[in-house]
Amino acid sequence: MSNQSTSPQPTLQAGAELHGFKVLRVQVFPEIRVTAYEIEHKKTGAKVLHLHSFDRENLYAIGFRTPPTDSTGVPHILEHSVLAGSEKYPLKDVFKELMRSTLQTFINAFTYPDKTVYPVASQIKTDFFNLARVYTDLVLHPRLLKETFLQEGHHLELSVPDDLSSDLIISGIVYNEMKGAYSSPDSLMYKAIQENLYPDSVYAFDSGGDPDVIPALTYEQFCEFHRAYYSPTNARFFIYGDITTEEHLAFLSEMLSGFDRVNIDSSIRSQKRLTVPLSIRNNYPVGKDEPIERKTMVNVAWMMSENTDHETSLILEIIAALLVGSAASPLRKALIDSGLGEDLTPISGIEADLKQLMFCAGLRNTQSSDAQKIEQLIFDTIKNVVKNGFDKELIEGVLHQVEIHGKEIIRSSYPYGILLMGNVFQTWLYDGDPLIGLDFPKIIESIRQRWAADLQIFQKMTKKWLLDNPHRILAIMEPDPDFNEKKEKIHRDKMAKLKASLTKSNLAEINTQAAELKKFQSEPDSPQDAATIPKLKLEDIPRSVETIPSQNSLIGEVTALEHDIFTNGIAYVDLAFDTAHVPEELQPYLPLMGKIITGMGAAGFTYEEMAKRIALKMGGFGYDLATGFSADAGRSWQKMAFSFSALYRNLPEATNIVSDVICAGDLSAYARMRDLISERKNNLQSAIVPSGHIFAKMAAGAALSLPAYRDEQWHGRTQLKFVQKTANDFELSKQKLREKLEELRKILFNKENLTINITAEAKGLKIVEENILQLLGMLPASVPVHTETKPTLAPVYAGISIPAQVSYVACVLQAPAYINPASALLMISAKELSNNYLYKHIRVQGGAYGGMSSFDSTLGLFSFISYRDPHIVETLRVFKDAQDFYSKNEISSEEMKKAIISTIGMLDKPLDPAGRGHVALIRSFAGINDDMRQQFRDNVLSATPQMLKNTLADYFSRAAKSAAVAVYSAPEKLSEANTRLEEKLRIENIFET
Ligand SMILES: [Zn+2]
């Protein structure tokens, strides 16, 4: 991220020619601080778009149009296969090697219904060009070995190797991946709608691959698909960041040399408009013993306008947000309040990554017999909107959200460049203007003008594209307990028939081929091949830490921390209240209180009115609970922060809203309170299976430190059990609950307890200061002092039973303080363990989806964890063996270098402005200053294999005594593990019965 507030000066003009390229257009976008160059490669016709900015996180992405003509999944299998090595880089898994040996900030590959995209990003120029060079070679010159096709796509093998009488089975990575996708209710629902709504287009096929069709793909077709579509002529290069256009063109001209223009028509054809609405009924799998009442999903989906008609697309996106986007949206409210189902289907809303947009709305956990009623309700609600119009404030709120999110610099789990890339491809892929979506102030202005000229514009468009649009589908998705069994039987019969048609020598050949493939997979890359990947030198890594501008100040006697950072006119404010003195009995109520007071009415406004006010004046508003040790671990801290963002012009009203919530939150609307508690319960419950490893780590960590104990109490299974009980007992104890929340509010919300954190440009900081003073005026000065309470920490050796067929295993040790010299080495060892020992023993040999380690001085934990693991006892053994291994063996200096590079990559993870302000606040709570951070970095950079071994031998021998263990798994797996474990797991059930 950069502090530059302008776009770079154009360095090339339209019409200019350079390195074999022609500049077609140059356009400056001041609002997003980008200068855009639309360029074409003269010889091949390759299209290049460079968005030049001052951001040093450069992004490079190669995209191809890859329209499928069947559901063999050839685009997806190819996406996997090209990353498995090229002529120049003949390694088995180049992708994994790049991941662990570079300072990449993003590396990935995506298969869409009509395109395939390969993005990489880095903040270091040498590293960036290394990554771009290897990635380009992989896609344009892949080896595409037969073995790779068999491994990634599909191949036959005998279920018992060498036993010709055993069953014939199909295997393959994409084949198995798609078998997983085809048992997920949500993907089946989406697939059924897309295929039927676009029956004559490429969207009628599954680019990911249908497991029933994948085996029909031949190696020749696979190679042919690459030859047809992976040419520079069919490529779109999207580039973003601070490296100059000239340098990119010099690089690309080298990459494209030797290629000629090819004859290819890859254009995506439009779906012809249907004149009669359709209705479909499909099934999805549920567990054999699961009740099937109220498990149906009902959706209505429409095909709407062409994506290239950008203004219409944007109006339709606004209409979608108006109808279902917020708690105040009429269609969302009508569906939920009807009681016909529990909540909206996850695909409700707009889908803009298709040539013609799709809008969908529906309910889940409903029943098939109510499908017509739901359809009727959807149409009645839309009819009503068309007749009476949308609430004006709701429209203003959605326009404001488009404006603020267009301006905002966001860098969450992916680079800012990826966000812009998504925007560009929505028109570029279909031969529309790639830059049209970037100029949002102009678009918003033109929509505002159309609205001013015709107050009924949104109603009219709703009528045209939804109410009067016959190109739509009513899709009913019903649960079927026999779904998997039926599918499997058909498959088994097919395979038996195939086997019967084969001779003994055919089978022997299949067996030999499968054995050869196994042999190919297990052979390591030769050192010469491994050496082909360009290596980053340790000298290429920045030596000094990056600092975050921070100024301590006082606002009306309250401690404040201010960060003068370029935020593009948006202020980010955190109000952090100390929770250390909250009595033990009230601690579990903290997260619930955050959820309830930010979701209910306040100061005479209903919750719908509050939702509208927030959409109108804020970018976001939420709460968070955080805790940790000080730098020397001599003390701990814990805070509850309310965070919001707003455009400078909206700061007065935004501060009023926060002040209403904190000082005048309304806790009397019990019905709304109950909905919010159920929502929190459902969210926590559904988080367990996808992130069981995090829950297991929290459960074990709670034994080892006060911060880790609080973390579990607020975010782990203890919190889930608490919320379940609160939801179950709600009717009986709502009065008591309200009293507790009132009491908590009194203890928490006062000036003495508060730290203010502001991130904005100087001008914005001043406006926040002025407005926050008013809020402070409403807060009491101090409160009756409660003494700090400390729970007793108890050893944990827990087995937590959940409905899952896989296990999540965590073993956690106490970790030293941030300033302890051992900490840098422990952080390196966590990376080394994750990339090497645990990867090999838990994933490759153990068959788990993942095995990893982490070091966290904030909570004081060093963890070993496994993810979607078929084992428990063996995994705990591997965790122990790993400690032995690193205590006795030195790793090679090459491995050490990779571990250091990936540790630095983690320390240097780019942050957006809000993230930088937040990190600075957390550091100030812990008392971590830049000298300490520099010392830590120096310790990482100067680490040697010998130091690592000595530190680990000493650390593991002492810390192992404090080890805590927690396993999330199915009850029968936990009991089975206990028959073999010396120290037994104490089994508990997570769901209230
Ligand atoms: Zn895949």
TrEMBL record:
Q: Where is the Peptidase M16C associated domain?
A: 477-726
Q: Name one GO biological process term.
A: protein processing
Q: Which SMART domains match?
A: M16C_associated (SM01264)
Q: Which InterPro entries match?
A: Metalloenz_LuxS/M16 (IPR011249), Pept_M16_N (IPR011765), Peptidase_M16_C (IPR007863), Peptidase_M16C_assoc (IPR013578), PreP_C (IPR055130)
Q: What is its main location?
A: mitochondrion
* A Pfam family that the UniProt record links to this protein: Peptidase_M16_C
Q: Name one GO molecular function term.
A: metal ion binding
Q: Which Gene3D superfamilies match?
A: Metalloenzyme, LuxS/M16 peptidase-like
Subcellular location(s) of the protein: Mitochondrion
Q: Cellular component terms, GO, for this chain's entry?
A: mitochondrion
Q: Which residues lie in coiled coils?
A: 720-754
Named cofactor requirement(s): Zn(2+)
Annotated keywords: Coiled coil, Hydrolase, Metal-binding, Metalloprotease, Mitochondrion, Protease, Zinc
Q: What is this protein called?
A: Putative zinc metalloprotease
